[in-house]
Amino acid sequence: MKQKIKTIVVTGGEGFIGSNLINKLNSKLKNLKIISIDNGLSKQSNRIKANKNNKIIYIKGHTKQIKSLLKKEKSIDTIFHFGEFSRIVKSFEHSEKCFSSNHTGTLEVIKFCSNNKIRIIYSASSSKFGNKGRDENLSPYSWTKSKNIELIKNYAKWFNLDYEIVYFYNVYGPGQIRNGHMAAVIGIFENCYLKGKPLTVIKPGTQKRDFTHVDDIINGVMLAWKKKLNGEFMLGTNKNSSVIDIAKLFNHPIEYIGEKPGERLASTIPDINSQKRLGYKAQIKIEDYIKTFVKQNAKPK
Ligand SMILES: NC(=O)c1ccc[n+]([C@@H]2O[C@H](COP(=O)([O-])OP(=O)(O)OC[C@H]3O[C@@H](n4cnc5c(N)ncnc54)[C@H](O)[C@@H]3O)[C@@H](O)[C@H]2O)c1
């Protein structure tokens, strides 16, 4: 008997985390039709080649058009909503783009899911938790990401919405953005290292982050998707490291640069329910990842 094809949509499917998710879905599961919707905002296009049992379709478009972009799709199982403006500091300079994606676009995605009985898996930001919750007001990014969580939960109460909220913590690993305005800290360090330039550390350098490898994040996302608990899951490692300590692991010159707006001093996991409810535990240590990177890329002296 022919197996039914399942349709999955990944918004932001050409971005760092979205492309890693498509890669995992494509390599682990069969009979999938995976549709990526990405408007190219982050200026990096990580596309995956479908294996023979699956189909991957790449649509260039903004989430605010989701209804018309997907009008021919009859039965979508899940939308992994990862297509938003994704960086804190740059959300001041690009606030229009941030509101357009994270506010207007996301509302349309939520409405589309609710109206069509599609489960949404939302890529939430841990920036919401810092400083007893006050950090959600630090930037247009943190604020819009935080309000989307409230919107999803309220939408589920007011109307009808099946959801999982997965919180990500400073994600790094293959496919991350290394150049340009959307690069994040580990990508920036790697780029500086490869170019032989000092690693740029934002002052004071003692700010702490929970650095999580993208393979662990994808593992957590897949668990939340499969278990269908209608919950919120924090997918960090539960270990904080200072940015300066991470920079020192590269064993390379370091240069301090001025403080940036929206910077947080610490990152917090207020609840480790993902371990208890999902059986999730991050496996990869940032120290091991950097050690391997340096070994593979060290220039002969
Ligand atoms: N990387 C992290 O450390 C981290 C931490 C917490 C939360 N997140 C969230 O995870 C998601 C993915 O992050 P990422 O690191 O892969 O970022 P990314 O910038 O690499 O990927 C996001 C992708 O979404 C696309 N996009 C943005 N707005 C869109 C829109 N309106 N319509 C269609 N496509 C759009 C971009 O072009 C990009 O390809 C984001 O929602 C981000 O806020 C990431």
Could you characterize what this model shows?
It is a single chain. The chain has 301 residues and is of the alpha/beta class. It has a domain at 6-171 and 211-236 and 270-283: Rossmann fold (3-Layer(aba) Sandwich), CATH 3.40.50. The chain has 10 helices and 13 strands. A 7-stranded parallel beta sheet has the order 3-2-1-4-5-6-11, sandwiched between helices. A two-stranded parallel ribbon has the order 7-10. The chain has a two-stranded parallel ribbon with strand order 8-13. β5 (119-125), α5 and β6 (163-168) form a beta-alpha-beta unit. The longest helix is centred in the middle third of the chain and has 22 residues, at 95-116. It binds nicotinamide-adenine-dinucleotide. Nicotinamide-adenine-dinucleotide (NAD) binds at residues 11-12, 14-18, 37-42, 62-63, 82-86, 101, 105, 123, 125, 145, 168, 170-171, 177, 182, 184.
Q: Can you lay out the helices and strands and say which pair or pack?
A:
Blueprint: E1 6-11, H1 16-28, E2 32-38, E3 55-60, H2 66-69, E4 76-81, H3 90-93, H4 95-116, E5 119-125, H5 140-158, E6 163-168, E7 171-172, H6 185-195, E8 199-202, E9 208-209, E10 212-213, H7 214-227, E11 232-234, E12 241-242, H8 243-248, E13 254-257, H9 273-278, H10 286-297
Parallel strand pairs: 1-2, 1-4, 2-3, 4-5, 5-6, 6-11, 7-10, 8-13
Antiparallel strand pairs: 9-12
Helix pairs in contact: 1-7, 4-5
